[in-house]
Specification:
Number of strands: 32
Bound molecules: 5'-O-[(S)-butoxy(hydroxy)phosphoryl]adenosine
Largest sheet: 9 strands, mixed
Organism: Cutibacterium equinum
Family: Belongs to the ATP-dependent AMP-binding enzyme family.
Structural class: alpha/beta
Distance between the termini: 44 Å
EC number: 6.2.1.1
GO molecular function, one term: acetate-CoA ligase activity
Pfam families: ACAS_N, AMP-binding, AMP-binding_C
Helix content: 25-40%
C-alpha cells in the first residue's frame, strides 16, 4: 500500500451507517459549527437550556452551552431508566480469569452508582471536591466515576499502572480527600499490590481522610482503621442505602481531571466539564463510532487514559449502548483471548490501539482464524499512527475483509475525537482521516503560515469544540502558554503532520518532549526524573526511538557518578527503579552510558543530537552545541 491507496468502505457498513452522505454532513457542519453542536445537544436532557452555544468572550477560556444546567449522569444513566433500556445491559464485564463475569443492566448500574454516591456523600465529599480513583478495569471503576459525577464531585482517575510517587504527585496536585482503590489487580495471573502503592502514596498526602478499598484479588493488605474502609463493608451500612439524587450542575462545572504528560516533569491536570463533553461524546459515538441500539461495543482502553474515560465509560452510556470491559491483557493466558471474547460475547465494534494490533499480529493469523468473528462490523484504532501493515492485518484477518477499519486521532486535551474517517468515507490506510463535523485543522510552519498540501508542519485545530479542555488544573497560565500562545487563535496540538491533496491528515508524531510508548503518553522529563533519582546516575536524557511493536521505545543516555561502572546489573537496577518510582510502562528499553551529554551553551540537553546519533542520521546544526 502507498499513501495513495484508497479503500472503499464495505457495503454492509455503509447500508446501516448513522451517517449518510459524509461529505454533506462535513460541509454543513463546518458552515455552521455552533448550529451543528446545538442540534446534537438537543438529543440530550438539560434541566435548564443554554443561553449561548459558544461563548468566546474570554478566549482561550471558551465556554459551551452557557447558562445550561445538566449532569452527565442524567444523560448517561438516569434518562434510560424511563425507557426500555432500563433492563438492557449497560455493562458486560469479564475478568482476567474469563470465567468471572459480571453484568449490569442500566437499572442495576444506576443502583450501584447511587450506593457509591451515598458513601462518598457520607464521607463529606461535596460538589467540586476531587476524588482520586486508582482502580483497575473492574465494574467499580464505572460506579466510582459516575458516583462522583452524580454528586457534582470531580474525579481524577490515575492509571492503575502508576507507582506510588506518581500517584502521590497526582493526589497532592488535586488535594483529594478520598481515594478509591482495590486490594490488588490481576496482571497476567499475578497480583499487582495496588493498596500497598496507595499506602506509600498517601503517607505524604496531608489531604487524604478516607481510602475506600474494593476487594478484588482477596490478597492480604494492611488496613489503617482510621482511614481505610472495605467497600463491601461500607455497602452494608444504612448510609449506603436509599436513593441519591443526581445533582444538576452548570454545563461548565468540572466533571474530571485527567493528568497527562507534558514538557516538564510535572503532569498537567487536564480539566473537562459536564455540558460540552457529553455533547461531543454523544455526537462522535453516533456518527464516528456508528453505535446502534443492538450493538455490543468494546473499547479495550483503560479509563486511566482519555480513550477509556471517554469511550469505555461515558460515550457508550450516553447513547444507551452496551459497553464491554475486559480486565485482562490481550495475550494472557493465550494470544487469542480477545478473539475468544469477541466470539463469545458477539462484539459488534472494537476500539483498540495500534500497539495491541501489532502485538497480536506477531502471534500469527491462526490464533484469530480459529474464532468466528463474524459479529464484527467496525474496527477502530487510536493513540498513535496505525501503520498500513497493521491496518491491513486488522482489516484482512480480524475483520476478514468485511469490516471498516477506522483510525481516530485525539488527545487527553481534546476529550473526544477530532480526526477520523467516517464509516461511509473512503479510507486511506495510514492516515488519521479528516476533521470531524464542525472541526477544521491546518498544518502550519514555524511562523504559523499554512503550508501547501503534502508538506510537513505543526498540526493546529482551528475551531473550538465542545469537549475541549477548559484549563489545566490550577495552572491557567500554563494552559494558555502550552496550547494557545505559539499561534494565536488556534489550538496547538503538539503533533507534526501533513495534509494531502484530498484533505486527509497524516500524523507524523509529537514535536514536544513527549514519547508515545505503546500508545501511553510519557514525558521525557518524567523518565529523566525517575532515572536521575537512582543513586548511580549523575545526569541523563531520554529519547524515543522507533520500535516495531510499541511505536516508540525509550532510550536513555546516562552519565554515571564517579565510582560507578556501567554493567548489565546496573542497567537492570535502573530499569527496576523506574518501574518502582514512576511506572513499569516507563522503563527504558535501552540504556547507554556516556561521559558527557550534548548540551547547548545555556545548558539545555540537545536530545535531537542524541536521537540523530542513535539512528545514525545527520546530526544537523551543531552551532549551539557547547562541546
Ligand atoms: C497524542 C495524544 C487517541 C487518544 C488517546 C491518546 C497521539 C493519538 C493518534 C492517531 C497518530 C495519534 C498524538 C497525540 N495520537 N491518536 N490516530 N494517529 N497519533 O491521548 O495520551 O493524550 O496522546 O497521541 O501524538 O498528540 P494522549
Amino acid at each position: 500500500m502507498t499513501d495513495e491507496t484508497i479503500v472503499d468502505p464495505p457495503q454492509p457498513v455503509v447500508d446501516v451507517a448513522n451517517v449518510g452522505d459524509w461529505n454533506t454532513l462535513l460541509e454543513s457542519a463546518v458552515a455552521d459549527p455552533e448550529g451543528f453542536w446545538e442540534a446534537e445537544a438537543q438529543e440530550l436532557e438539560w434541566s435548564k437550556p443554554w443561553d449561548k452555544v459558544l461563548d468566546r468572550s474570554d478566549a482561550p477560556f471558551f465556554k459551551w452551552f452557557t447558562g445550561a444546567r445538566t449532569n452527565i449522569v442524567t444523560n448517561a444513566v438516569d434518562r434510560h431508566l424511563n425507557t426500555a433500556r432500563r433492563n438492557k445491559l449497560a455493562l458486560i464485564w469479564v475478568g482476567e480469569d474469563t470465567s468471572k463475569v459480571r453484568t449490569f443492566s442500566y437499572f442495576s448500574l444506576a443502583r450501584e452508582v447511587e450506593q457509591m454516591a451515598n458513601i462518598l456523600l457520607s464521607m463529606g465529599v461535596r460538589k467540586g471536591d476531587v476524588v482520586t480513583i486508582y482502580l483497575p478495569r473492574i465494574p467499580e471503576l464505572f460506579f466510582a466515576m459516575l458516583a462522583c459525577a452524580k454528586i457534582g464531585a470531580v474525579h481524577s482517575v490515575v492509571f492503575a499502572g502508576y507507582s506510588s510517587e506518581a500517584l502521590n504527585q497526582r493526589i497532592d496536585g488535586s488535594e483529594s480527600k478520598v481515594v478509591i482503590t482495590v486490594d490488588g489487580s490481576w496482571i497476567n495471573g499475578k497480583v499487582f499490590p495496588m493498596k500497598q502503592i496507595v499506602d506509600d502514596a498517601v503517607k505524604f498526602s496531608p489531604t487524604v481522610e478516607n481510602v475506600i478499598v474494593v476487594r478484588n484479588t482477596e490478597s492480604e493488605v494492611t488496613m489503617d482503621p482510621t482511614r481505610d474502609h472495605w467497600y463491601h463493608e461500607l455497602c452494608k451500612l444504612p448510609i449506603a442505602k436509599g436513593r441519591c439524587e443526581t445533582v444538576q450542575v452548570d454545563a461548565e462545572d468540572p466533571l474530571f481531571i485527567l493528568y497527562t504528560s507534558g514538557s516538564t516533569g510535572k503532569p498537567k491536570g487536564v480539566v473537562h466539564t459536564h455540558g460540552g463533553y457529553q455533547v461531543h461524546l454523544s455526537a462522535t459515538m453516533k456518527y464516528c463510532m456508528d453505535i446502534h441500539e443492538e450493538d455490543r461495543w468494546w473499547c479495550t482502553a483503560d479509563p486511566g487514559w482519555i480513550t477509556g474515560t471517554s469511550y469505555v465509560i461515558y460515550a457508550p452510556l450516553l447513547r444507551g449502548a452496551t459497553t464491554f470491559m475486559a480486565e485482562g491483557s490481550p495475550v494472557f493466558p493465550y494470544p487469542d483471548v480477545w478473539w475468544q471474547l469477541i466470539e463469545h460475547y458477539g462484539i459488534n465494534s472494537m476500539f483498540t490501539a495500534p500497539t495491541a494490533i501489532r502485538t497480536l499480529m506477531r502471534f500469527g493469523d491462526a490464533w484469530v482464524r480459529k474464532h468466528d468473528l463474524s459479529s464484527l462490523r467496525i474496527l477502530f484504532s487510536a493513540g498513535e499512527p496505525l501503520n498500513p501493515e497493521a491496518w491491513q492485518w486488522f482489516h484482512d484477518v480480524v475483520g476478514n475483509g468485511k469490516c471498516a477499519v477506522i483510525d481516530t486521532w485525539f488527545q487527553t486535551e481534546t476529550g473526544a475525537m477530532q480526526l477520523t474517517s467516517l464509516p461511509t468515507m473512503p479510507k486511506k490506510p495510514g492516515s488519521a482521516g479528516k476533521p470531524i463535523p464542525g472541526q477544521e485543522v491546518a498544518v502550519v510552519d514555524e511562523d504559523g503560515k499554512e503550508v501547501p498540501p503534502g508538506t510537513d508542519g505543526f498540526l493546529v485545530l482551528k475551531n473550538p469544540w465542545p469537549s475541549m479542555l477548559r484549563t489545566l488544573y490550577k495552572e491557567p497560565e500554563r494552559y494558555v502558554d502550552t496550547y494557545w500562545s505559539k499561534y494565536p487563535g488556534v489550538y496547538l496540538t503538539g503533533d507534526s503532520a501533513r495534509i494531502d491533496e484530498d484533505g486527509y491528515v497524516w500524523i507524523i508524531g509529537r514535536t514536544d518532549d513527549v514519547i508515545k510508548v505503546s500508545g501511553h503518553r510519557i514525558g521525557t522529563a518524567e523518565v529523566e526524573t525517575a532515572v536521575g533519582s537512582h543513586p548511580a546516575v549523575a545526569e541523563c536524557a531520554a529519547i524515543g526511538l522507533p520500535h516495531e511493536v510499541k511505536g516508540n521505545a525509550i532510550h536513555m543516555v546516562v552519565v554515571l557518578h564517579t565510582g560507578y561502572e556501567p554493567s548489565k546489573d546496573l542497567i537492570a537496577d535502573i530499569r527496576a527503579h523506574v518501574a518502582e518510582t514512576l511506572s513499569p510502562i516507563a522503563k527504558p528499553d535501552t540504556i547507554d552510558f556516556v561521559e558527557k551529554l550534548p548540551k547547548t551553551r545555556s545548558g539545555k540537553i540537545m536530545r535531537r543530537v542524541l536521537k540523530a546519533r542513535a539512528l545514525g542520521e545527520d546530526e544537523g546544526d551543531l552551532s549551539t552545541l557547547d562541546d
